[in-house]
Structure formats: structure tokens, C-alpha cells
């Protein structure tokens, strides 16, 4: 038990909608008479649903901190222990009731609250007894006692439906990865105790980190701080930020190629992606091209999405396919077809999967706006219609063939340097 978590809503950033929901809960906990006077009854349980690292535990602590209540916490896996799971639930709820009003947080509740019969391996009987005891305990106290049970999961789809019935976890709050504005707020919170060079912009970092959770962003700034320390710097520069993003997304830096032919081929590969992406309408903006290997990648071309929209247009999907084929196009143009290599195997796999989705799932082919999810409708002919050349790829080929400057600048803008920023690449 934590008598005082010391966490407030000011410490939680990037999840404004979830915070708003919990502000109502805190108001009820602080001034229950205002709500009970009109017959209101607060939810006994709140379920936080979202991917790892999005701040679910921090939110639960912030409720307790804002209300000034004690905070109990346990992981769902701690409940499930042979012969003692149900008794542990009884003991915990006894302590919770003795310290009411309070917040009781159950992390990873799917470990104990999953649907019956979905457990892997043995221990199903013990798990179900523990789950039954949890349901019994939640039914055993009134919502106005000041006890709120907050649970977290990233797999709400496998939870036992009885847990979500009214009177139990009947309020669900989504805690997703933050958008660009949320990421900027998260970065502001985690940068408060760090020193940066004047040319480091948190807004730029937020723009470059789509899909990052709050924990990812905190780790990013910590990695940048460590790198700055290793390099003997007194403040974090854009270089440390850049290297930290690369490390988190793609892995540790590997050994740079020294064989000139392989290095030249790799340079054409990556710049092929960059040029096709730059010249294709609807494609994300090129941020950087690098020949420094990371993880399994020998080189990388980074693109920055223009926004965090979950809706993607047909033009944008076509653009991704065209950009992904830039590596093969560069090989055919500069080395001729007999010299085509196996380097684009991963790109081809992704492109084929995306093209299949456009045909089968999104209805964006010549077949028309039909969903072909039924396996009986899948045929090689249908899929191959989507793979045919389209007007976008033809226009792109004409643009590249007509621009001698583009073809001539490729060796110059890659081989002397290991990295090339988007701005410099676009200038060429």
C-alpha cells in the first residue's frame, strides 16, 4: 500500500480524453454528497484498455494522488498461484475495505480474468476459482463506499464477459498511444530535468516519432542523455536525439561496409527509395537516408508521416508501393537487369502484402468496391490485376527518365557521406 502516490494529473500527458474521464471519478470521490444527493452511484470498477507503455499505471496512481487516497496495486499474475489464488483475493479485498476510501489497481488483469477455457497449459481450475472470488468480492461492496477498482489490460478481447457487466468493470477507458500533440506534451514532461542545445525542438521530435508510446518517448530522452554523457557533452544535441531514435526503431549500430562495390549498390538502393518517395504524390516526406547498418538492415531510408491519421487514401497506399519498389528500380536503371540482387526481398514481401490488402480488404482494385475476405473469392487473377502497372508508376518512370539531374546526382549525394538528411536530398 502507498499512503500517498505523489502523482497528479499534471504528471500524466498525452492521454487527455482518459484524464477527463478520471477527473469525473476524482470529483465524485472528493465530494460524494453532491452526487448521492441526486441518487448517483459511481462505478465500482474502471477498465483501462491500451497497449503497453501508454501510462495506464500512472493514470491509476494519479487518481489516488488527486483524491488523496491510499493506493493498493497488484499484478494479475500474482493472483494466480496454486491453492492460494482465491484466498489471496479475499485477503487483499479485506485490507482494501479496511482502508476505504482507496484505489485498488490490478495490472494485467487478463492474466486472471480471461475467458474460461482460454488459458494455455494447466492451472485452469485454480484460475477460475480466483476469477470467481474476484467477481464475488466486487459484488460484495457498494459503489458509494469510496473504493474504486481500476484494472489495466492490452487484451480486452479475451476478458471474461462477466467482468464487464454493470456493477463490475462497467466503465472502459481507452488509453492509446499519443498523437503528435500528445507526444509533444509527453516530451515536455520528461524533458523538464534535462538540458538541451538551443536547436533541439520537442515539436520536431514529436513529429519524428509516430506510434511511440509515453514509455518509448521517456526511453528516447533517456537514451539521448546517456549518449550525451558518453560523448562528454553538457547538453543534448540533435545528433543524440537522431541516434537515439535510430537505435530504438532499428536497433544498435553495426559495422559500416568497407567494400566499395557493396557500398555503392547499397547507396543506390536507399536513394532509389528516397527519390521514388519524393517524386510520388501522397508519399511521406523523406527525413534521412543512411548507409549505417542497424539491426538486420544494411541501410535505411526514413520517412516522416505528415500526420497521425488512421485513414489512409488509395493514393497514399499506391505511393507506399511505388516507394518500396525504388530499390529494384534503381538496380535496373543503374546496374541493368542481370545485376538485380536479392536485397529487396523484405520490401517485396511488404509490398505484396499491401497490394493484396488493397484488393481483398479495401476494394481498391479494378474489380470494384467489393470485400473479398471470403477465401472462395481469392484467385491469382484478382490479385495480379492489382499488381499491374498503373498511371502513377508510369508517370514516375517518365519523370526519372526526363530528369538527367536526378540520375547524375545520385552517386554524388550518397557515397561521400554515411548519412544524408531529407533537406539535402531534396535540394539535389
UniProtKB/TrEMBL annotation:
Keyword hit for Secreted: no
GO cellular component labels: chloroplast thylakoid membrane
SMART domains: AAA
All copies of domain AAA+ ATPase, residue ranges: 42-179
Cofactor(s) listed in the protein's UniProt record: Zn(2+)
Major place of residence: membrane
A single GO BP: PSII associated light-harvesting complex II catabolic process
InterPro entries the UniProt entry points to: AAA+_ATPase, AAA_lid_3, ATPase_AAA_core, FtsH, P-loop_NTPase, Peptidase_M41, Peptidase_M41-like
Localisation per UniProt entry: Membrane
Keywords assigned: ATP-binding, Hydrolase, Membrane, Metal-binding, Metalloprotease, Nucleotide-binding, Protease, Thylakoid, Transit peptide, Transmembrane, Transmembrane helix, Zinc
An example molecular function term from Gene Ontology annotations: ATP binding
Membrane listed as a keyword: yes
Family as reported in the entry's similarity comment: In the N-terminal section; belongs to the AAA ATPase family. In the C-terminal section; belongs to the peptidase M41 family.
NCBIfam families to which the protein is assigned, alphabetical: FtsH_fam (TIGR01241)
Name of the molecule in the record: AAA+ ATPase domain-containing protein
Amino acid at each position: 500500500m502507498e499512503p500517498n502516490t505523489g502523482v497528479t494529473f499534471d504528471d500524466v500527458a498525452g492521454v487527455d480524453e482518459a484524464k477527463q474521464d478520471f477527473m469525473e471519478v476524482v470529483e465524485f470521490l472528493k465530494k460524494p454528497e453532491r452526487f448521492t444527493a441526486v441518487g448517483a452511484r459511481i462505478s465500482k470498477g474502471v477498465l483501462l484498455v491500451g497497449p503497453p507503455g501508454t501510462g495506464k499505471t500512472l493514470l491509476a496512481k494519479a487518481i489516488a494522488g488527486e483524491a488523496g487516497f491510499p493506493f493498493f496495486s497488484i499484478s494479475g499474475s500474482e493472483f494466480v498461484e496454486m491453492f492460494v489464488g482465491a484466498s489471496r483475493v479475499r485477503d487483499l479485498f479485506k485490507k482494501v475495505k479496511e482502508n476505504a476510501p482507496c484505489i485498488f489497481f490490478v495490472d494485467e488483469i487478463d492474466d486472471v480474468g480471461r475467458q474460461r477455457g482460454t488459458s494455455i497449459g494447466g492451472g485452469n481450475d485454480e484460475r477460475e476459482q480466483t476469477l470467481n472470488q474476484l467477481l464475488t468480492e466486487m459484488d460484495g461492496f457498494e459503489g458509494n463506499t469510496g473504493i474504486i477498482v481500476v484494472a489495466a489490460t492490452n487484451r480486452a478481447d479475451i476478458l471474461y464477459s462477466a467482468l464487464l457487466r454493470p456493477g463490475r468493470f462497467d466503465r472502459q477507458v481507452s488509453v492509446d498511444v499519443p498523437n503528435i500533440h500528445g507526444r509533444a506534451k509527453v516530451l515536455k514532461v520528461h524533458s523538464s530535468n534535462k538540458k538541451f542545445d538551443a536547436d533541439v525542438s520537442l515539436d520536431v521530435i514529436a513529429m519524428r516519432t509516430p506510434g511511440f508510446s509515453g514509455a518509448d518517448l521517456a526511453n528516447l530522452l533517456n537514451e539521448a542523455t546517456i549518449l550525451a554523457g558518453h560523448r562528454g557533452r553538457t547538453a543534448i544535441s540533435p545528433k543524440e536525439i537522431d541516434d537515439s531514435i535510430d537505435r530504438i526503431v532499428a536497433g544498435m549500430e553495426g559495422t559500416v561496409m568497407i567494400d566499395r562495390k557493396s557500398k555503392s549498390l547499397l547507396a543506390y538502393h536507399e536513394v532509389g527509395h528516397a527519390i521514388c518517395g519524393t517524386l510520388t504524390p501522397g508519399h511521406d516526406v523523406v527525413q534521412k537516408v543512411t548507409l549505417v547498418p542497424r539491426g538486420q538492415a544494411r541501410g535505411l531510408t526514413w520517412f516522416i508521416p505528415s500526420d497521425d491519421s488512421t485513414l489512409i487514401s488509395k493514393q497514399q497506399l499506391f505511393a507506399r508501393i511505388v516507394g518500396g519498389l525504388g530499390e529494384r528500380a534503381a538496380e535496373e536503371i543503374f546496374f541493368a537487369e542481370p545485376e538485380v540482387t536479392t536485397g529487396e526481398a523484405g520490401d517485396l514481401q511488404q509490398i505484396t502484402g499491401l497490394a493484396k490488402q488493397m484488393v481483398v480488404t479495401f476494394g481498391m482494385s479494378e474489380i470494384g468496391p467489393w470485400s473479398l475476405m471470403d477465401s472462395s473469392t481469392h484467385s491469382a487473377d484478382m490479385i495480379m490485376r492489382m499488381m499491374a502497372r498503373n498511371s502513377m508508376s508510369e508517370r514516375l518512370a517518365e519523370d526519372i527518365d526526363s530528369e538527367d539531374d536526378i540520375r547524375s546526382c545520385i552517386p554524388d549525394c550518397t557515397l561521400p557521406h554515411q548519412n544524408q538528411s531529407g533537406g539535402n536530398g531534396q535540394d539535389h
